[in-house]
Design brief:
333 residues, binds adenosine-5'-triphosphate, binds magnesium ion, alpha/beta, 20% strand, 12 helices, single chain
């Protein structure tokens, strides 16, 4: 069974005038079909106002369909009998950690959710410990949230969601207010929960780099799913992404520019290492496929020699990538 299944979803917000009379509607979601399997790590991209947050709120039964149906773990969100079960199974993490932490002490904050649904005390403490450990925050359990960095606070928010033992977590731009280190901490924590605990993760983000390791990406545009596929399938379409007012990861963009300048590089480069390998292939006048095939053939003396100089080339190529990244720094979001 799908973790999340969405069929022909439409969401209209009602606009009201100053007196509170209905003045019209805004269509935020316009016929979305979507399927997420248990254990997947999904990234949702899309420029401002494309409907990402509206979609996220449907997954947690904070909003209900104007038309169409949303099922979470087989439960129709419109079925009020399942409301609390849905909200427990699909936990939400929002942008601002300061709005999500309520208690004066970290461990109390994480225990708040389970306590609220009547989990026995002993079990609460067990969950608090496990959840804080899962996001690498156990050593801070006695601290006041005020003394934590943004990334740490956000990890406490995630621990609070995990303590409810959800099957799925939906993170709506959880890193938008964080510095680069905080961003990495939070993404690492989410990835770990996905890989080690099998929790389905739906990550909404404006940072393309955060989507590289996703199993699947959905790109929203004007309330519709404009593109979907693996990170490689999505990010290789640089021009299409530009049309949707989106970037691609810096390394992918650099590779794209080099291709346009005439280098024979594959369209789907996502990491620094891939670019370095591809550039090495180029320098010897080989396409990467050819280079790949050559690896499997017996190494001749000549190849051994070129392998010896390969290390220098690799460093040069690495520096090139580094320079590209630094040049692009600050262009994100
Ligand atoms: N409460 C609301 N009332 C009326 N219109 C709304 C409301 N919330 C969002 N909208 C509109 O719905 C559309 C989708 O908004 P949504 O917040 O889902 O986009 P988003 O992709 O999350 O954007 P962002 O990247 O800025 O977070 C936008 O046109 C927005 O103005
Ligand atoms: Mg949003």
């Amino acid at each position: 069974m799908s973790m999340i299944k969405i069929q022909k979803l439409i969401h209209d917000y009602i606009k009201r005038d100053d007196e509170g009379n209905v003045a019209g509607t805004v269509r935020a979601i316009s016929g979305v079909d979507l399927d997420v399997q248990p254990g997947q790590f999904i990234a949702v991209l899309g420029h401002n106002g494309s409907g990402k947050s509206t979609l996220a709120k449907h997954l947690n039964a904070l909003l209900f369909p104007t038309e169409g149906t949303v099922w979470v773990d087989g439960m129709d969100t419109k079925d009020s009998a399942h409301l609390w079960e849905i909200r427990r199974e699909a936990g939400m993490v929002f942008q601002n950690p300061d709005n999500q932490i309520i208690a004066q002490v970290v461990e109390e904050d994480v225990g708040f959710g389970p306590e609220n649904i009547g989990v026995p005390t002993e079990e609460i403490w067990k969950r608090v410990e496990e959840s804080l450990a899962a996001v690498g925050m156990l050593e801070h359990r006695k601290k006041s949230p005020n003394r934590l960095s943004g990334g740490q606070k956000q990890r406490v928010s995630i621990a609070g969601v995990i303590a409810m033992e959800p099957k799925c977590i939906i993170l709506d731009e959880p890193t938008a207010m964080l510095d680069p280190n905080g961003r990495k901490e939070v993404i690492k924590a989410a990835m770990k929960l996905n890989r080690e605990k099998g929790i389905t993760v739906i990550l909404i983000t404006h940072y393309m780099e955060e989507a590289i390791d996703a199993d699947r990406i959905f790109v929203m545009d004007q309330g519709e799913v404009a593109m979907q596929g693996t990170p490689r399938e999505i990010f290789s379409q640089v021009e299409r992404m530009k049309e949707l007012q989106l970037d691609v990861p810096q390394v992918t963009l650099l590779a794209h520019e080099l291709r346009k300048a005439g280098l024979d590089l594959p369209a789907s480069i996502l990491t620094k290492e891939e670019l370095v390998d591809a550039l090495l292939g180029c320098e010897t006048g080989q396409s990467t496929e050819v280079a790949e095939k050559q690896k499997s053939t017996a190494a001749t003396e000549e190849q051994k020699n070129s392998a010896a100089t390969g290390e220098q080339k690799s460093t040069a190529a690495n520096r090139q990538v580094q320079a590209g990244e630094e040049a692009g720094h600050g262009n994100q979001g």
